Amino acid sequence: MGSEPEGAGAEAGAGPGAGPAAAAEGPAKAGAGKRGFFAKLALVGDAVIFRHTLFSLPFALAAVLIESGGRPDPWKLLLIVAAAASGRNLANALNRIVDRGIDARNPRTAGRHLPSGKLEVRDLVLFSAAMGAILLAAAAALGWLCLALLPLAGVAVFGYSYTKRWTWLCHFWLGATCAIAPMGALVALSGRLFVLRYFVLSGAVALWIAGFDIIYAIQDIEVDRREGLRSLPARFGAGAARFAAALCHLGTAAGLALLPAFWPLGAAYWVGFAAAAALLVAEHLVARGGTERHVRIAAYGINEVIPLVLLAAVALDVFLL
């Protein structure tokens, strides 16, 4: 969803008079305007990092499987996938738009699509409008409760890019926003909201996202401080940030370990849980390497695998064991 973990200082737009980079921006934007529809769509998908839909969508699918006993209504399943995917990509597109100014002033992110001129703001605005329309239609088709809760999801999605401007709790806001995917899937299936097991699963996902977003933000401590962004690493330092991220992931492990108390999950799930826990440990060990490459492997690469491992374990339990 939202901005999937980019760190509180990961975004940014350059103003006029920025030297050679600014001089090159005009031709780049002209080239962007001449690209064909599918070429531009591919650039948009790259800009919002479409593959990072893998962060929250597998948890939504796992929630559907365990709540429905592996027999979800196909139409409802399609709507849930549409809502989760469109909501996540809407969030990241908005994040790119709002934070393009900070992106341009961060050497690590200045090459992103908006500050570099590969895309124009209107491209992501149109994409955001399309994603918003899909999300609205899917929520309406999933029932009155999903539609009624959509404004709260909207506040979460729109608000993330601004929370990092005033609180170091921004990482937890992002986690809660991404956790809307499994929570929304469960609400869509049952038509109920205040069910304890829903909050256990969603809380585990929220802490998982928050933890690796904190890790990701460690590499932008100096930029965040210079820009006045309130990331947890910028506020408390790298050591405290790593400790906070570890606590978040301990909370994730605890939440995931509780799921068999609420749903009939057996041996396959526990194997998947053990593998996911090992990957979380590996994430923190890799991140201690300190380089941008180490952080990207820890925060992105490993965390693209964890939800797939858990989804596979749930599917095995539901369908084969």
Walk me through this protein's architecture.
- This protein is mostly helical and about 325 residues long.
- The chain has one domain (about 20-320): Tetracycline Repressor, domain 2 (Orthogonal Bundle), CATH 1.10.357.140.
- It has helices at about 20-35, 35-45, 55-70, 75-100, 100-105, 115, 120-140, 145-165, 170-180, 180-190, 195-215, 220-225, 230-235, 240-260, 265-285, 290-320.
- Helix 4 (about 75-100) runs parallel beside helix 8 and helix 15 runs antiparallel to helix 16 (about 290-320).
- The radius of gyration is 20 Å and the shape is globular.
DSSP strand content: under 5%
**What is the CATH architecture annotation?**
Orthogonal Bundle
Structural class: mainly alpha
CATH homologous superfamily name? UbiA prenyltransferase
The counted number of beta strands is 0
Query: Would you state the CATH class?
Result: Mainly Alpha
Poorly predicted spans: 1-30
What does the largest sheet look like? Answer: none
Helix percent band: over 70%
Helix count? 16
According to CATH, the fold-level topology is Tetracycline Repressor, domain 2
| Multimerization state | single chain
Mean pLDDT: 88
Domain module tally: 1
Element order: H for helix, E for strand = HHHHHHHHHHHHHHHH
Radius of gyration: 20 Å
